[in-house]
Amino acid sequence: MKVPTMAEMMAEGKQPEVLFWVGCAGSFDDRAKKITKALVKLLDKANVEFAVLGTEESCTGDPAKRAGNEFLFQMQAVTNIEVLNAYEIKKIVTACPHCFNTLKNEYPSLGGSYEVMHHTQFLKSLLEEGRLSIEGGKFKGKRITYHDPCYLGRANGIYEAPRDLIRKLDVELVEMRKCKKAGLCCGAGGAQMFKEPEKGDKDVNVERTEQALETRADIIAAGCPFCNTMMTDGVKSKEKESEIAVMDVAELIANAEDL
Amino acid sequence: MAVIPNIIFAVILFAAIFFFVRNVRKLIRNIRIGKDVDRSDNKPERFRKMARIALGQQKMVVRPVAGILHIIVYLGFIIINIEVLEIIIDGLFGTHRIFSFLGGFYAVLIGSFEVLALLVLVSVIVFWVRRNIIRLQRFRKPEMKGWPKNDGNFILYFEMILMVLFLVMNATDVSFQQMQAGNVVSGLIAPLFEGLPGSTLHIIERSAWWLHIVGILVFLNYLYYSKHLHILLAFPNTYFANLNPKGRMDNLEAVTKEVKLMMDPNADPFAAPAEGEESAPPEKFGVSDVADLNWVQLLNAYTCTECGRCTSECPASQTGKKLSPRKIMMDTRDRLEEVGKNIDNNGTFVEDNKSLLDNYITREELWACTSCNACVEACPVSIDPLSIILDMRRYLVMEQSAAPAELNNMMTNIENNGAPWPYNQMDRLNWKNE
Ligand code: SF4
Ligand code: SF4
């Protein structure tokens, strides 16, 4: 897979159209890496000249910040901003709503101002510019329900871009009982991903998965690698792997036409 | 001697106003205990939000049944208070229905008050049934035991009694009934009193009149001790609410300074502080007690209606964890009241070896939050429980190094490898070849 880094671009004296911020999950988590690759395929298909930071990328600091470690967060932020500013980055796309939120909302006052887009927003803009086409392909007619990631939805008010993309697949988009502004969290945010949950009578991801199962959808579409993991685990704990799949919106589009 | 009732009335009225003003001043003093935060920007947007959310009750109707009933009670509250103006003038000057010279318009006015009073009465009864017979989930959480539960019911009884008194007062007012205008509801109750001698009717009418106005004045002074403070504070609270995207968590400035210093190769960390900086004590990071919160967070605590919409949307709460965002707000208010009383008694705050953290809010609650913002979205009066939770985590981590062990691992990983997992930063692009 051809994935140019900023360092390589710089050496060739080129500036990419957009920086793809891969994020920690997208770089290291086996499930999330598939999302990363799906997005790369779509960017290639739309002839977007992009680059990644590669080994120069580091955690945005989101989980540290939400865990209460503002020091570590700001250390990460300042380091990343130095790299981004050195490459004169103007526009960033990322497939992780946590990276998206942090880069977009929390970096500016520390000296890092960029145009930041979630991949569903970016893909939608490519679609509107006619650079990308979306066909139903193998998902045509399937029932799909979309789980709103908290950091995309409530945190930043983005509810429609992912839904618009899904509709383009000629599928039946069904909503869960709790969706959009009232969407239920998958249970991963606020650094919960990295710890055992507190004592209770159920896990949040199981509760959310039950809501998804109620819709009798074939696929749960997600827009966040952490939601993806949580929902996949939820489906497993309900032993419904054979009935319902969990896929990122980018994967849906890329797989629809077997990219 | 005809002026004695007027004098008694004036005394009661001014006493009520006096105590009310005293409570308001205490309220403002307590809110000022909080740290400064700038919410003076973007005034037009703030006014719009206040108009939509506080005045327009925009978020209440998200739950239509409760929302519509609430709007009735709220409208009733405001509109019927126009009548209170007349009562006060009558009371002070010994007049009777001073506005009745308005004639037809007066009839329309009183008529609509009566209809509203009836609607309020019905709504309040439905509210009571929801709280006590249907026993909605969100009114039955542990933090709703004792005073909060009684407070909720007291208010409902109060409103029921006030509305009944208002209608009885009108029904037994012979001259008003004879006008045959505006007595839309009281005209229907009047036959109940038929046959009673005029003097008895007069006594009933006067008693209802007095009880009604005294009830209102008592209510005014009950507010400070009740979740009903929201009828006043919903306005400033929505006005001063956070306008940033909900996902944006503030960057602590004190930390920025230190980080800049650490990252600056030219800075000498051992340099003597510049003139005038010496005496500044090192800033405390995060929140362990109410004085560490900002004033908007404290205003939030006083504004909370204890409706539990936040808690019923909270993923942690829904899955049986101890965290309840409503409890976070109630605890903050209780602790703030405790600190306020301490100041009342001692002139200034005397250390009581208690704090919001641990004595009120436990660590288990704080660590159960997913920062999903569902509570913030659900709150009908723009309260932000999440900001308090995150500020308290900051204290736990930065002042006490008391994060759960797994989170410490995660943070060590970020520090060493630039990722929350133990992978090498140099392997960050390996995926492209896999
Ligand atoms: S942000 Fe925290 S407290 Fe608020 S609803 Fe979500 S999990 Fe509950
Ligand atoms: S914080 Fe808001 S939603 Fe929660 S109980 Fe208080 S008023 Fe209701």
- Number of strand elements of chain B: 0
Q: Ranges of chain A with pLDDT <50 over ≥5 residues?
A: none
| Rg of chain B, Å, rounded | 28 Å
What is the mean pLDDT of chain A? 96
Mean of residue pLDDT values of chain B: 92
Overall tally of structural domains of chain A:
2
Domain 4Fe-4S ferredoxin-type (chain B): 295-326, 359-391
Pfam families (chain B): Fer4_8
Organism (chain B): Sinomicrobium pectinilyticum
GO molecular function (chain B): 4 iron, 4 sulfur cluster binding; metal ion binding; oxidoreductase activity
Structural account:
The complex is a heterodimer of chains A (259) and B (434). Chain A is an alpha/beta fold and 259 residues long. Chain A has 2 domains: 6-127, 3-Layer(aba) Sandwich (Rossmann fold); 134-256, 3-Layer(aba) Sandwich (Rossmann fold), CATH 3.40.50. Helices cover 43% and strands 11% of the residues of chain A. In chain A, the strands form 2 sheets. In chain A, strands 2-1-3-4 form a 4-stranded parallel β-sheet. Chain A has a 4-stranded parallel β-sheet with strand order 6-5-7-8, sandwiched between helices. In chain A, α6 links the parallel β3 and β4 (115-118). The longest helix of chain A is centred in the N-terminal third of the chain and has 17 residues, at 70-86. Chain B starts with a helix and ends in a 17-residue tail after the last helix. In chain B, 38% of the residues are buried. Chain B folds into 2 domains: 4-31 and 63-239; 253-265 and 282-422, Fumarate Reductase Iron-sulfur Protein, Chain B, domain 2 (Orthogonal Bundle). By secondary structure, chain B is mainly alpha-helical. The interface between A and B is large, with 74 and 70 residues. Residues 313-316, 323, 325, 369-375, 385-386, 389 of chain B line the site of one iron/sulfur cluster. Chain A: One of its GO terms (molecular function) is 4 iron, 4 sulfur cluster binding. Chain A: One of its GO terms (cellular component) is plasma membrane.
